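=== Discrete structure encoding ===
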Amino acid sequence: MTLSTHVLDTAAGRPAQGVRVELFRGEELVGAGETDADGRIAALADTPPGSYRLVFHPPSPFFRRVELELELGEGHHHVPLLVSPYGCATYRGS
């Protein structure tokens, strides 16, 4: 199972650079990184399928931490985060 992500700052209308993203399996940190100039992390993890927590530390004065619980199967998964001072959203990307 591989995982990639990107973060978009919808208030600024651009990718969010330098956002810390962590992937946990249980309490074990299995992947981490910071978004690049395009707001992306192309290869956050290459791990077995299972239950994971994806934790974003976005550039928002309100949302200090956004945590998602995910069940990830075989193959590649892309999970983006859209964030602003007023809201956040995510979806299963392709």
